[in-house]
Amino acid sequence: MSTPTIQPDPLPLTPTPQTPTLTEQAQATASYILKKIASALPSSSSFEESIHVPRIAIIAGSGLSSLAKAFNTSENEEIEGDTEEVAVKVEIPYSELDGFVVGSSHASTLIYGTIGSGPAKTPVLLLSGRAHYYEGHPFSKTTFPLRVLKLLGVETCIITNAAGSLNKSYNVGDIVIINDHINLAGLAGLSPLRGPNLDDFGTRFLALTNAYDLDLRHKAHLAWAKCNQVKKLNEGVYAFAAGPCYETRAETRMLSMLGGDLVGMSTVPEVIVARHAGMRVFGVSIVTNSALHDPPPLGSDPDVEAHVTNKAMEAGSASHTEVLAATHTVADDIRELIVKLVELIASDKQVVA
């Protein structure tokens, strides 16, 4: 008779942790940011939603990290005669924020502070830097910060970028308000809303006929008048191309014929997600280069050797160095515009659409 073997008790099954949904991840990140803001307040102050929650967010495009200078400091608040409260400024690297992507060509910091003085002093978030689709990130990642902004209480997004000019009347250094867009990637099926709808944020089918808020565009023109600027503040249509290649001559002519005034590699996915979440959007571009419309010289041209020698094909080509240089020349102008715009939004009781 064989001796029965004693089987060990089975080990208890370790529950497999579930991956949080995008909404849960955004909620956790928003909670972390609010705690960081609250912990930075003076010991005499307690966090109050009506006072400290940011209702406006700014996304800084290429070369526009200097928008952080728009925030109040203890020094400039004293100049304005508002010394009752020390200016609070909180900087959080994207690397600390779950779900945020550190971009390869931009600063990557979330900054909280106030803009304006007196009754117009407003808590604002600045996203200094963005991730791009061309870096290999899906749209769900590049637009994730917009979901977090909504959960933080943001109602208005000011989205900036550097863009090439398709409109021949624009000059390098011009500031152009975006009043509509052409989403080439979206027409090809690449949308940040692709996949199951996030019902906690918005509806399945999103209307974009008023993507760029008319009231905000009107306020921007009023703000520009307060800046005492000589040059014109333009409005135009922004064409989104996924990048990273700059547009060819033929693509430039095509986009221009479609009604585009500007072309760039960002902004539109962010606008779509912001509008899906019910936030108002103001978009603005700095013209950094003029896209080439002229067809290339023909290989059969009798002067082809001269064209090759003179590098005619390279003349006028865009470069990232050129883009950054152009934004730096007008960074102060766009910062002043945004400060005045924030003050006008803050003074308007109808902040929510």
TrEMBL record:
Gene Ontology CC annotations of this record: cytoplasm
Biased composition (Pro residues): 7-18
Superkingdom assignment: Eukaryota
Pathway assigned in UniProt: Purine metabolism; purine nucleoside salvage
Record carries keyword Transferase: yes
Transmembrane segments: none
Domain Nucleoside phosphorylase residues, every copy: 81-313
Keywords carried by this UniProt record: Glycosyltransferase, Transferase
GO BP, sorted A to Z: nucleoside metabolic process
InterPro entries, sorted: Nucleoside_phosphorylase_d, Nucleoside_phosphorylase_sf, Purine_phosphorylase
GO function term, MF aspect, one: purine-nucleoside phosphorylase activity
Annotated region described as Disordered, given as residue ranges: 1-20
EC number: 2.4.2.1
Family stated for the protein in its record: Belongs to the PNP/MTAP phosphorylase family.
PANTHER family cross-referenced by the UniProt entry: METHYLTHIOADENOSINE/PURINE NUCLEOSIDE PHOSPHORYLASE (PTHR11904), PURINE NUCLEOSIDE PHOSPHORYLASE-RELATED (PTHR11904:SF9)
Name of the protein this chain belongs to: purine-nucleoside phosphorylase
Species the sequence originates in: Hymenoscyphus fraxineus
